[in-house]
Automatic annotation (TrEMBL):
SUPFAM superfamilies in UniProt: PLP-dependent transferases
Highest taxon above the source species: Bacteria
PANTHER family associated with the record: CYSTEINE DESULFURASE, PYRIDOXAL PHOSPHATE (PLP)-DEPENDENT ASPARTATE AMINOTRANSFERASE SUPERFAMILY
Record protein name field: NifS-related protein
Domain Aminotransferase class V: 26-402
Species this chain originates from: Cereibacter sphaeroides (strain ATCC 17023 / DSM 158 / JCM 6121 / CCUG 31486 / LMG 2827 / NBRC 12203 / NCIMB 8253 / ATH 2.4.1.)
Length: 412
């Protein structure tokens, strides 16, 4: 098959057969996606059959630990990292906070600067910026104040003196929507002797990261925005993971995936993350890529997801471009952006979101913790934006429903 089988996809999400949600089109996926059935099934089974201390010699404990290990090994294979280069944590915000403490210890000892952007969600900005209070130099890579574009040409001058050790940037902003050229940016940083930390929270729902292609040293994303449980997933290449001071228990420091996990993991949710691999593998098999190696299966599913999203995004962007009562943040071409569409309106945005709800559109308004990029774009965060976001399980009919609702609420 060359097109995503949307009926098959939607059969994996119980939300689409839930009577309470009938007629409601979900356009707040950037805040958290629906959960796929394999994850729900695994979570339910764990709580019913395996909610014991894992890795003990009795049967229930053995099954619990084996399923946790399965989640790590299968997801790592789908993203092109070694099994112990994947860690779980309570959220991406928490994982980033822990990383910042590790970087603080590293740079306080060895010196050097870091680069941050003003395109990021605050979780991949504030924790790094606070390192300035520890005497670590923080340099800002700034977006275009009209478009929100993060120009790769703006990075080399920040790296020119050779002092930068870490570059932190998003794969995709949760309000700008533009897909940044991660591989190009990582190559630029690497050539200057710097490591890279990529916030993939707003991109991973549109396709799991291919770490071989991206070349990032750190990649973070949230499973609960990627059809899974409320866990943060941290991918970190061994060279950097071993360089940074461990943040977990000292006696776990020799186990790579425990170095940046200060507290014990949520056993049930880690195990349930194996359901994400079940889902990707099922999509690959259904669309003719089931016999491929794990990374190739993931790449095939990624392509299918993106092609579907681009097809659905194009008419929505065309509709918005034809209006003169709003400002679309980010690119107008669907190929260069994720289907996360933030709009500045000529009226308060919260009542518009409420009015859309009356038409069966689930969306919201606010600053979405993207205060810095909104301010850089000249937008009052208190006024906020209307954000409409979808993923590959969204149907053409739902996008049509959204477009009709926008015309009805905003006026033709």
């Amino acid at each position: 098959m060359t097109l995503l089988d949307i009926g098959y996809v939607r059969s994996f999400f119980p939300a689409f057969s839930e009577p309470a949600l009938a007629g409601q089109a979900f356009f707040e996926n950037a805040g958290g996606s629906y959960t796929c059935r394999p994850v729900i099934d695994r979570l339910s089974r764990f709580y019913h059959q395996r909610k014991v201390q894992p890795y003990a010699p009795y049967a229930a404990s053995h099954a619990a630990g084996a399923e946790m290990d399965e989640a790590r090994s299968r997801l790592a294979a789908l993203m092109g990292v070694e099994e112990d280069e994947l860690s779980f944590g309570p959220s991406t915000s928490a994982n980033t906070y822990v990383l910042a403490q590790a970087v603080r210890g590293w740079l306080s000892r060895e010196g050097g600067a870091i680069v941050v952007t003003n395109q990021d969600h605050e979780a991949n900005s504030g924790v790094w910026r606070r390192l300035a209070h520890e005497g670590i130099e923080v340099r800002e890579w700034r977006i275009d104040p009209e478009t929100g574009h993060l120009d790769p040409a703006g990075l080399p001058p920040l790296l020119a003196d050779g002092r930068v050790r870490l570059v932190c940037f998003p794969h995709c902003s949760n309000v700008v929507g533009e897909i940044n050229p991660v591989a190009e940016i990582c190559a630029t940083a690497r050539a200057a002797g710097a490591f890279t930390c990529v916030d993939g929270v707003s991109y991973a729902p549109h396709g799991l990261p291919d770490m071989e292609a991206l070349g990032a040293d750190i990649y973070l994303f949230s499973a609960y925005k990627t059809y899974g449980p409320h866990q943060g997933i941290l991918l970190m290449r061994r060279a950097l993971a071993e360089l940074l001071p461990a943040q977990g228990h000292w006696f776990n420091a020799d186990t790579l995936f425990k170095r940046f996990t200060p507290a014990g993991p949520d056993h049930a949710q880690v195990a349930a993350c194996a359901g994400l691999a079940d889902y990707v593998d099922a999509l690959a098999a259904h669309h003719g890529a089931g016999g491929a190696a794990p990374l190739e299966r993931s790449r095939a599913v990624h392509r299918l997801m993106r092609e579907h999203e681009i097809r659905l995004l194009r008419p929505l962007l065309d509709q918005l471009a034809a209006r003169n009562d709003l400002r679309l943040i980010g690119p107008r071409t669907p190929e260069t952006r994720a289907p996360t569409v933030a709009l500045v309106l000529d009226r308060p945005v919260a009542p518009v979101a409420a009015a859309l709800a009356a038409h069966g559109i689930m969306a919201s308004a606010g600053d979405f913790y993207a205060v810095r990029p909104l301010e850089a774009l000249g937008i009052d965060p208190a006024r906020g934006v209307l954000r409409l976001s979808f993923v590959h399980y969204t149907s053409e009919a739902e996008v049509a429903q959204l477009m009709l609702a926008l015309d009805a609420v905003l006026g033709r």
